[in-house]
Amino acid sequence: MDQLVAKKVEVAGGFVYQSLEGHVADVLVVGCEILKSLRPFWDGRWGSWEQFHALTLTLLTYHDFGKLTPEFQSRLRSSLDSGQTRSVVSHALCSALWVEPHLGDDLTDWVCTLSIVSHHSPLHKGLFSTHLNLPKVRRSEVERANATFSMLADLCKRQADFALAAALRQSELDYLLARGSEASPYHVRDIVKLSGAEQVNFLERFGDRLKEARQMYAMAHMVLKQADERASGIFQSSARDFPLGAVSGPVAESKGLKKTVTFEAYNLNKRVGSLYHFQVQLRNTASLFTVVRAPCGRGKTFGALLCAKNHNRQRLVFCLPTQITSNAMAKELSRRSPGHVGFFHGLRRYLQLDETGQEIRENQLPRQTGVIDDDFRSDLFYSSPVVVSTVDHLVYSLIRAYPQADVALGNLLSSIVVYDEIHAYEPYTQRQLLGAMRILYEYGVPQILMSATLPKILADHCRREFSANLIVDTEGMDFSPVEVERRDIDLLLHLDEMVELALKGKKMLVVANTVARSQEVFRLLAPRLDGKCPIHLFNSLFTPHDRSTGKESKESVLLKLFHKDTPCPAVLVATQSVEMSLDISADVLFTDWAPMDALAQRFGRVNRGARDCGCGARAVVCSAWKGDAPYYLPYFFGRDDEENLIDQTWKLLPEGPLTHRKTVEIIDEIYADMDLERGDKVTQLFRESTLYGERVNLMGREEDSHFFNIRHDPEGRHFATIPVVPTCYADRFRSSLFGVELYTIRVPLYWLNTYAGRFSQLISQGEEVSGLYEIEASYDKVHGLRIDRFDEGHTLFG
């Protein structure tokens, strides 16, 4: 078997192989398809298309050049199990060592070398700084390298009609021949531009082109990485077609290569004639940055889809505050165009949309392998036509906080990004998100900010910094879908009235500010209804599986029960988790007092989309009490440096029909002093890691200059949490942890320190799992995790 091989796939009884030439041919075929799809979206601000085209084709051809070494060939043909120890040679390192691009621009050459080095290992300062394993370089291998070079150059000409400008590093090969395996690792790091001296050299030479360097690297890296993975996947899926031990050539073209699908294929599925005026404005805007203020239920999402079509971008990325909101948005967008929508957040590995896009279901991959499907990686890379994500993932993509971040950034650069519910962040998180917006704005990425309750101070900030176009739903601003009543009596003293309304056939929403209060309302209210009306509890103490997964999940049941066309009465008791996550419409709302923006979101779940409250839609806002003292948690803790937004809202909140215009006026007044000018850390970390940089640490201490957590709040309002598995679910993970995140709940770290006897570390495969606990507390799908034995004062999350 003299033929050079690049891929090995295990099939029943043995292995099949793909030749180096065959794999490179497949990568070129797939890569050229990606480039073809990218060309219509290429923007002049990204530089010369011809130069980028040459860079990318060079990468596609030579990324696996280092696989021709005897050491790598021996390793690939070995029958050893993957877990056994063997000497490993980095083929990426060898590829960069043996190939020198001459692309007509020093920066482009530099980016080409670094892209080859890092196509399997995230680029950072310490890459290959230790255990640098160099093969012996023999005269026969130099001659074989030259022959392989000629073969690959011919292949590139055939597949892409592109004449490579690369040539072997003959002088360095002669050096290595003379030194053999004794070649200095430090010298090799100079050759592949990884040494400290080379990093200093890079900054001195290209300090004024850092933005260009990061863009060029991210986009070229994205094409190479996706082409390599898709080509490998095509060969793996066809491996059973070959006899054992066979070495196949290219397979991508013969298997029918799928074309890259862009946002253009997404079906809006709505008549243009039914558009509101603000949707028409949004559809027609050519602004690079747009701010939209419109009431709940008025069609902001559809307007953003129209705007994306107008901007002619390759993909659309929706960013939302939480995993729950991301799930809900993914389902909403999939109803319009199944098959074109993906989603990504911390649990995406274990979840997927069903065939119709109507439900989120658990990934049924074999637990023992934990293999992840292509759809997951597509969403991780932001390469689906429409991707719904959390803001966390967007920010982490910019600061290289996970291994595939540069691939995601490459895709983001040809996207339009929409931030929904932009009001929902505390000042610290808001500043980090503004930093991310600033970076994307500099790269010419169109962005849309949408909210029903966007404070004027934030809109004005965006107009100053990003020349934002402000679009307001002026018609909707004067709608008054609810009538507000203020009652200076605790929510728990209104139970009789709630029962009476429910038994009269009303759909009723009850929102408490803490989990403990929501559980108490549910415990007292459910027996009084005596089964005569459906009643449900919704808060953060349900596992993600029970809350979101499948047709019987909390979300699915509630969406059907509280749909405007469902005639039966129902009661939902919830926390602030309902403010953004569920597209429901109730007749009556009873709610704890809260800051005005939170109240506005709760009001938006009543008589949704209506012009007025003529049908009797009401929102009853109740003060909260603990003994004789007003109860403000979790919105006010009584510290000297805090503003009591609840008190400010209570003083300004009018009774009677409430227009959205009046709601926004109150929000503008109470948030007039929001601090948006203080520096963000996202911009700093992005600039420090243009090409070289330290790994960003998501777990650590604030004083660490490379620590970052978008939810961390150094101003003191952050409550640390830990993941726990209810005992009733723990047994299913004794032999494998695959999917355990779907059955975990985050509870206050304070509980672990105070009630240690109720926690034990989860045992899986006979050993304790670090950082994951079983909790001794009652749990079921109706009540969630019951917390009556724990301190309510630390149960503040929704």
Would you mind describing this structure in some detail?
This protein is 39% helix and 16% strand. Mean pLDDT is 85; it is low at 80-87 and 367-371. The chain starts with a strand and ends in a 13-residue tail after the last strand. Strand 19, helix 25 and strand 20 form a beta-alpha-beta unit. The relative contact order is 0.09. The strands form eight sheets. It has a seven-stranded parallel β-sheet, with helices on both faces. The protein has a seven-stranded mixed β-sheet with strand order 17-18-16-19-20-15-23, with helices on both faces. The protein is an alpha/beta fold.
Poorly predicted regions are 80-87, 367-371
Helix content: 25-40%
Number of contiguous helices: 30
Mean pLDDT: 85
How many runs of DSSP E, i.e. beta strands?
A: 29
**Proportion of residues in β-strands:** 15-25%
Q: Report the major sheet.
A: 7 strands, parallel
Quote the distance from N terminus to C terminus: 62 Å
Name the strands of the widest sheet in spatial order.
8-11-7-12-13-6-14
Category by helix and strand content: alpha/beta
- Rg, alpha carbons: 29 Å
Tell me the overall shape: elongated
